[in-house]
Structures are given as C-alpha cells and as structure tokens.
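User: tokens in, sequence out, please.
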C-alpha cells in the first residue's frame, strides 16, 4: 500500500500482522508526508534471509553489520550485531542505530564502507 498516513499505516500494520505467515512493515514513501506499507511472507523478509545466511555461513549475528534507512529495516536490525542507519533514514530507525552514516544521496554507504575497511 502506497502513500497512506502514518496513523493509518500503524492501524493497518497491526491488522495485517495478525495474518499467519505474513509480515507488514512501514517504510518511506515517495509521496510527501506519507508512508508505504510493505507486505510480504514471513520467509521473504530481510531478517529471515539474513538468519538463513548466518546458518549457512556458520556466523554469529554479532559479526554482521546491517544498514538501513526506513522502518522496514527494523527487523533486520534485530539480526545484526552492529546497526547503521542512513542520515536520510527515519527517526525510529536512527534511534536504534549504533551509528548514523551520511545520507545516501551523499554516498553515505560508500563512505561508511571505506571508513570501516580502513580500520
């Protein structure tokens, strides 16, 4: 669902998440002052995919960095040891981050990777 108010999105998200096997997350929108609701199967989420990858690679979550910019990345943050939110991200996501990277439109992810690799 695209371009709904945050208040409506909160209500819809709670209702959708009652459906077995389905997850709804609120994300940014191209529509000013609105949000989008991303609805997917529970096994098609970033969090689920990452957890499966960690099993395959025999890695622990504390060894993983997660990067996001909207609230639909909140579940991903649950599965990583170090959380990076982009400066242009939502306030909620940034409040959960260990670090805020420069905005995407200022090459923030590339700068973060370069800084991290140079440590």
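Assistant: Sequence out:
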């Amino acid at each position: 669902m695209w371009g709904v108010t945050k208040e409506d999105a909160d209500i819809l998200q709670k209702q959708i998440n009652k459906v077995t096997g389905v997850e709804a997350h609120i994300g940014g929108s191209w529509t000013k002052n609105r949000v989008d609701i991303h609805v997917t199967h529970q096994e098609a989420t970033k969090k689920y995919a990452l957890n499966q990858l960690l099993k395959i690679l025999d890695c622990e979550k504390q060894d993983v960095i997660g990067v996001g910019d909207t609230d639909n990345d909140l579940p991903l943050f649950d599965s990583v040891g170090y959380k990076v939110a982009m400066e242009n991200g939502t306030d909620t996501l940034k409040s959960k981050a260990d670090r805020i990277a420069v905005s995407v439109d200022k090459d923030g992810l590339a700068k973060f990777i370069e800084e991290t690799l140079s440590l």
